[in-house]
Records
---
Amino acid sequence: MSRDQRANDNWALLHAQEIALQKNLPLVVAFCLSPGFLGATMRQYGFMLRGLQELERTLEMKNISFRLLSGTADEVLPEFVQEYSIAHVICDFDSLKIKRIWKKNLATRLNVPLTEVDAHNIVPCRLASQKVEFGAYTIRPKIHRLLPVFLEEFPALQTQPTLWEHHRATDWQQVWQSLTVDTSVREIDWLTPGETAAKQQLNRFINQSLNTYHERRNDPNAGAQSNLSPYLHFGQISAQRVALAVSAANVAQAAKDDFLEELIVRRELSDNFCFYNPNYDTFDGFPNWAKKSLDEHRADPREYVYSLEEFEHAKTHDTLWNAAQTELTTTGKMHGYMRMYWAKKILEWTRTPEEALAISITLNDKYELDGRDSSGYTGIAWSIGGVHDRAWFDRPVYGKVRYMNANGCASKFDVKRYVAKSL
């Protein structure tokens, strides 16, 4: 178990149980805890580990063992499989290249079957499309055509007949003490981690905010967002469960349509981009028209140029940008509309697109609860490099990449209120 850290509504775990029951064998969930993962801090590790602690308790009630291994999967799983004579390994799907490298290495070191199950996307990424898509308009019909096949109710996780004979409780105190990650970015306290809290948040969103989501989703002051992205990122809730619940909700169809477009089409488009484009986090991953246009404007004078440190500490001339950065560092979650403005201004205030991309990814992954996610990489690539977008009017620095400014934000929401709330 890696990307989808939950007991319920988990196709990978359900498939593993199916095989275990067929073979009349016990079932164990192994989680490989990497000592450092792409700059993740205590904020992200804390949210994840607290969710895993709940997961262990939930699995034990189903006679399923949980074993936390220290190290990357390709390093520690082969020895674990050999030591305990594991018969079959099932893993979940991830579009990020580092996870795919680990999985590829693992496959060469195992002498038992290795099966990958896409438990993250509703329409499995490999089935939705076999190539990198130009945009939402090209992948949308492919996903909608397959949704009736895959958007179905989950079977329940069963109780295993027997508990693994090598079952033992995790020493969580030792796990916490073993962490060597950056502790300067503290855990957040406004969102409770774990599968139970994720379901509660989903119900809260449906009951309180979904009905007006289509009208207020671009207003950072409205409180209209679902706040499910951290849970979706860590797999503490299934996107499929969210889609089923939202589809069944007694609210305006326009609200459901807008939310499901983001949850399914846009989210799965991000996995498509990262899975089929190995350069998703570099300048080379941008479309040719954007690279050409940005190259033509490399020498353009920048009115302002800021360093990573100045960006990180919200020391720009723009109070709106500073408010967005402050929201990010203090809460671990920046409003989706502000993420676009935030990244585009980093492009405008750095010397090169490469520097803008690196700074955006560094700050996003350091402070966002859902950092190191395909949606984050894709959103930044859209903002800075025109990914999944079209060419716009040519202008300094941006070239033909879509431009955003504070006046545009002011036309959509009360900027002064947002700034006052965040700063």
---
Amino acid sequence: MLESLFATTSTTSSLSLASMLIVIASALALGLALAWVYTLHSRATRSFVLGIAVLPAIVAVVIMMVNGNVGAGVAVAGAFSLVRFRSAPGSARDISFIFLAMAVGLVCGMGYVLYAAIITVALGGVFAIYQLSSFGAANTHHDRTLRVTIPEDLDYVDLFTDIFAAYTTYHELASVKTANLGSLFRLTYNIGMSDTAAEKAMIDEIRCRNGNLEVALTLPETGKQAL
């Protein structure tokens, strides 16, 4: 029975109940490991974590039920796994975990439980290392979105150029919007702070320049992880 779990062929003529239960249990265990890696050092919704935990087992069952027909199995399991993204946009990280969980389940369903465990440990470990480190974040953790309200009589084109030169590594005017029946302009800038500790000093200088009207400094709205 156990030899069949490490078979070198992708199709089987019959499937025993014991083998099926072992494959499902293995897929659930590996899915739980992937779900734990996904939650490391990040916020995660309970529903998505549960989905990651059970997805390998679902894919494994589909592969076993189509008797090793990988094409049919991937088509069915892929359709199931991507239903979530019809109503909610997925980040690059979410989609990567979806495909990793599918791959683990597919390998389990084909009988390569040992290989599935190796894939989980190897790729899950890489995800964990990247997630716990600052890999990929060096160029983004100082990015901010700045919103400034100014009177209509001020020329906004070069109004804050000297301030940005002193406090930012880059700046770009993202949008201009009129407000209060055209008596105000609402400016939105994408900026990179040279030093996040100087945020208050920069805001104070902007307030002196815009007549103490509203100033808001927030994290970027655009999800840089989104595909």
---
Amino acid sequence: MAAQAVLSRDAEEFLSYLAVERGRAPASISAYRRDIAAYERFLYEQGVSLTKADVGLVESYIALLSSSRRPTSTARALAAVRGLHRFCVDERGATRDPTEGVSTPKIPQAIPKALSEDQVELLLSAVIGDDARALRDRAILETLYATGMRISELAGLRLGDLDLQKGMAVAYGKGSKERLVPIGRFALAALEAWLGAGGRPLLAPARWARRGDAEAVFISTRGAKMSRQAVWQVVRKAAVKVKLEDRVSPHVLRHSCATHLLEHGADIRVVQELLGHATITTTQVYTRVSPELLRRVYEKAHPRALVARK
């Protein structure tokens, strides 16, 4: 294992602030640490301390990154550098922020590749049988599409997070932020079947290896809590079975859930809350998925949209 980079005291304080006060996830903290370590190494090679960095130096660093990294990676690195310098101004007594005025690299807007409703139906019908494993896999697919959960969120579901009577679940998103999500009737029926006598109890061991396994909603055939990778393999296996493997990614059912909600008239802020997006901007990408929807809504709403063309 590579030795962890030694950061300045200001940088360590910044990372601590992100973890403790901002509730950033460990993976995010690790990414920030790598980006800041690379930046401080660059400053060291230039013979400049963190507090002495100026706009020109930051721009030179971003230009250097841009020559070898993708725009998304460069933008993330700049966000880490910008956050560090702003923290130094706000909390550490620095007199200026050298990242002010530094432009963020333009990132091509990726459009989520949602499945059509027919393709989702095909995927959800891929699991056949009523044995415990089939009941589990069907519940996984139905719940992912019904709730828009991330695969990691579904893998982390505990029995206490489900209220099947009310048709609700608690999902724990990035930074351990929790949110309530509704469960549709098909997913609810699939979960009830999985948690019933013919499902999960048949895979449960006589003695649980770990407490987390006993509390997990979805367990493996060996009686252990399913990992994110194991849940993804369930989705992948179903996709291969119905020849949709080229259309499926770990987030495909989440994308499809959001897209179909919006296409059927859901308010974008409701979809934002459902998916656990921190800002509406993240959710807005789904409004660009379906040109057909834009045309349909426009023709229905605009008073002169349906005037006959000559």
---
Amino acid sequence: MTASAPPQQLNGWTFQVEDLVKVFGADAPPANDGLTLEVSPGEVYGLLGPNGAGKSTLVKQVMGLLKPTSGSIQLGDYDLVADPAAARQLCCYLPQAQMPIDSFKAREAVEIAGLIRGASPAETRRRTDELMSALEIEEWAGTFGAKLSGGVRRLVGYAMATVVPGPIVFLDEPTNDVDPMRRRLLWERIRAVAGEGSAVFLVTHNVLEAEKSVDRLAIINEGRLVAQGTPSSLKSEDRGCMRMLVMLVPGAPDPVEPGFVMSSTRVSHNLATVIAEQDVGKAIEWAQGLIASGQAEEYALGATSLEDVYIRLTGEVSTIGHDR
């Protein structure tokens, strides 16, 4: 196997996207519409947004798989638009779809990825051992991909993407199918990759996980960057507020909302509302009335979260925020 020659060492680099636009057809709205962001080494940076928001289009342009209509993508001294081959060497990627490893044993798949990335056989073996131990998947090292569970296969894919991490690491829904215990181990490894100096881009619908794990994030909707900052800074507008989630009876119409409800969004039978702290008592009485009348099954009250910001800016509830 001929390994790829790694690009020259980057020193003091930043990653910058400037006024990025991608249009797929003359009559189509832009998939990316003037996106601008900057990420530094060691950051875990979240890319949040509903389906069709433009997250995947952005990633494909950074990876050199799509050419922007206009705008620039710069990693240190590398112009990734002019040099897409360098982009593919400098960036690592875990796609949302499972890795195609049916015919490879788990260890083989990770080691092949390391060799392709330009590491020596000895270094590849060391890193593979380290990752499989940290993720507690050693018992499946000799198992073919076709026989792995979805969660273990996802962890093997993560190991393939990070066995030799580049300056930029893209992780698209990395915790999909992963059990709760190993999900915690995976988050520890994601932070470790950032600690080694990579910039980690976390592409996710899971707003609640992102809030706990990212340093900064961008919320993208309809191709545009609608908010960017730390989780705390993005929640500043909701200080002094509480969130009440009312689980309506399936098929029930929207209830009449009292005047103290500041905002609300319904997805399926979940009605997410934001209320002022001083109105908590009235909100509980209202929710209990909905249950008594047969309109609702239960309710939950808590502090506002990043998801409330996400709802306000996109009009959608994250796909993994509630069990019901």
